[in-house]
Amino acid sequence: MSPVRLRTVKLCKRFGGLAAVSDISIEVRPREIHALIGPNGAGKSTLINLLSGELRPTSGSIYIDGRETTNCTAYQVSQSGIGRTYQKTNIFLPFTVFENARLAAQSRLPTSMRFIRDASRNEFLNERARAALAAAGLNHCAERIASTLSHGEQRQLEIAMCLATAPSVLLLDEPLAGMGADESALMVELLKSLAHNHGILLVEHDMDAVFQVADRITVLVNGQKLESGTPSAIRNSAAVHSAYLGNDDHA
Ligand SMILES: Nc1ncnc2c1ncn2[C@@H]1O[C@H](COP(=O)(O)OP(=O)(O)OP(=O)(O)O)[C@@H](O)[C@H]1O
């Protein structure tokens, strides 16, 4: 197994004259939570969109488990082992929690499995869905309609749907957005447990949560890497304090 799950080399994305992501080289290792932080407009979501194949880079390269995916589609990237969640929750509200997870599992069925019909195929998908719900802490509400879940549970369901695609790396875009203290505490525990089996790239504005869970933090400002290091190195960085942590806009 590659010691690096996800790697970018001098990744750039321009929108016209704006360099939203500029020369970014980062890594995500197995069982590591690598947090990306930075003020609004720093380029965090653009970077995640590049990694998930939803945007094409202007230049630079992306590797998943050592294989180049720079110009792959979102579907191909997903098949390579990347799962992502979005700032806004993306779930099927009228369906049950279990049906949501099962649909996600089905969406990533390898082509070879499509020819296997009936019970064994169904049992494969059901087992994937059940395992994903268990890992996301949602086993107890598998039969509930998704629209009746709390905001925090809906965010957990989105993560479960991601897990149902059997990714090795998770790209999580603000999983704590809109959560109260109790929901945030639960999500922090969930992130720690997910890191036992996944590399995680985490974009999050909740600095308490970031400093609790991250093994490594990269700070982006104006599309550029300002600093990258352990939480204590970032906490003690004068450059980070003056550009970001020192001002109150980040929360
Ligand atoms: N599709 C686009 N077309 C043009 N400019 C864009 C596009 N997407 C993002 N940008 C610009 O790129 C810059 C980086 O935006 P991005 O959304 O990646 O920042 P961010 O760090 O995720 O911000 P936030 O924390 O507010 O989500 C911003 O100036 C934004 O306006």
TrEMBL record:
It comes from the Bacteria. PROSITE patterns: ABC_TRANSPORTER_2 (PS50893). Pfam families: ABC_tran. Keywords: ATP-binding, Nucleotide-binding, Transport. GO terms for molecular function: ATP binding; ATP hydrolysis activity. One of its GO terms (cellular component) is plasma membrane. PANTHER family: ABC TRANSPORTER ATP-BINDING PROTEIN (PTHR45772:SF2), CONSERVED COMPONENT OF ABC TRANSPORTER FOR NATURAL AMINO ACIDS-RELATED (PTHR45772). This is ABC transporter ATP-binding protein.
